[in-house]
Specification:
Elements (H helix, E strand, L loop, with lengths): L9 H31 L6 H30 L6 H34 L1 H6 L4 H26 L1 E3 L4 E3 L6 H37 L19 H8 L9 H83 L6 H20 L5 H26 L1
Antiparallel strand pairs: 1-2
Helix pairs in contact: 1-2, 1-9, 1-10, 2-3, 2-5, 2-9, 3-5, 3-6, 3-8, 6-8, 7-8, 8-9
Length: about 375
């Protein structure tokens, strides 16, 4: 962490202060609504939504703890809240930001399983203990990235006016932590995206192939087993007085009529078989098309996830590595901007993930409509 000074005039500083307060308030409000919707609506308690909840909890405390403690420190250019609170703020800030990143990785992994391993994914939907284990593991790993080093090396400096991590200029520490909290998650997100797009591309190619027609027995075949037997049944019973030439003609006409009926029966059975196969094939194609459209939406959302994460985190990681090599602690408005940019990711996350899903929106609508109905009933009771 670095202390930022005041490179702007008082009017600009006042505008920036208002924007920072608005950012903290928006982060708390957005993520608080998601947590509330998850608690109220039991239909949201599925495996993938637990990962959304984990992300919302981390981002909620970023807006409720990290930013409110940093705003007065940045505006006054000194830390007046004590050494213990300084260490707490450093630990909790790194912990929450890294947990937010790891929660994004868990969400992407879950979406990858949904698209590429749909059958096994459905069987794991009820495995809530495993999901909770993943969530706890994200918090533990996030703490291990920065927590032990901050607890042993961080303190107030320069006569108690600054609160910063003493390892900020140790380039080995910066590179290792940057790999763990940025490079590895970026590689995993890219891998999940590539596998999903490859799966969608392969399924689009399979869709162009014809559907095999099932071998359905003919429903029109009656009790006639062989054509000879049928032809005998079709022949009329003749008297002995009928001439032989007339008998031959009658037998020829009967054979032709029976063969004609047999051919018509076969044609009808083939048409019925093809009709039933086409109907079942059309139903399968409709289901596959809907599943493909749904998976395309998942792929687009994951691509947006990756883009937002890289845009918000890459500048801060890059500036941190450069400053660790230069050992530069001078005024740098651009670094201050990148520092706030990573917190902006906590503001964007609710729009990119839960609020894009129809179930979360419906839960919020039910929540607000319920509150509105309760308020109106109370008003009617008070008036009566």
């Amino acid at each position: 962490m670095f202390n930022s000074t005041k490179p702007f005039n008082p009017e600009t500083m006042a505008i920036l202060l208002i924007l920072k307060i608005f950012l903290a308030f928006s982060i708390v409000l957005e993520n608080g609504l998601i947590i509330m919707a998850f608690v109220v609506d039991k239909n949201l308690r599925l495996r993938n939504n637990y990962f959304f909840l984990n992300l919302a909890i981390a981002d909620f405390f970023v807006g409720a703890i990290c930013i409110p403690l940093y705003i007065p420190y940045e505006s006054k250019s000194e830390w007046n809240l004590g050494n213990e609170l300084c260490i707490f703020w450093l630990v909790i800030d790194y912990l929450l930001c890294t947990t937010s990143v790891y929660s994004i990785v868990l969400i992407s992994y879950d979406r990858y399983q949904l698209v590429c391993n749909a059958i096994s994914y459905r069987t794991k939907q009820t495995s809530i203990p495993t999901t909770v284990t993943y969530m706890v593991a994200a918090w533990v790993l996030a703490f291990l990235v920065h927590g032990p080093a901050i607890l042993t090396k961080s303190s107030k400096e320069n006569g108690g006016t600054e609160c910063k991590n003493q390892l900020r200029f140790n380039y080995c520490y910066i590179i290792i932590t940057s790999i763990l909290e940025f490079l590895v998650p970026t590689i995993l997100l890219t891998y999940f995206n590539c596998r999903i797009y490859w799966s969608l591309h392969r399924r689009r190619r399979v869709r162009g192939k014809p559907v095999p027609t099932p071998n359905i027995p003919s429903p029109v075949q009656g009790n006639s087993v062989t054509c000879a037997f049928v032809s005998k049944m079709c022949l009329p019973k003749l008297d002995e007085d009928v001439p032989s030439s007339s008998v031959k003609k009658i037998r020829k006409k009967s054979l032709f009529a029976c063969l004609k009926t047999r051919v018509e029966d076969k044609t009808t059975s083939v048409e019925l078989s093809s009709l039933s196969a086409s109907r079942s094939g059309s139903v399968d194609l409709t289901v596959q098309r809907r599943k493909l459209i749904k998976d395309r939406k998942v792929a687009r959302s994951l691509a947006i996830i990756l883009g937002a994460f890289v845009i918000c985190w890459a500048p801060y990681i890059l500036f941190t590595i450069i400053r660790s090599f230069q050992k530069n602690d001078k005024i740098d408005p651009w670094y201050t901007f990148t520092f706030w940019l990573q917190w902006l990711n906590s503001f964007l996350n609710p729009f990119l993930y839960p609020l894009c899903h129809k179930k979360f929106r419906n839960a919020l609508m039910k929540l607000f409509c319920k509150e509105k109905l309760t308020a109106s009933s109370q008003t009617s009771l008070s008036t009566s």
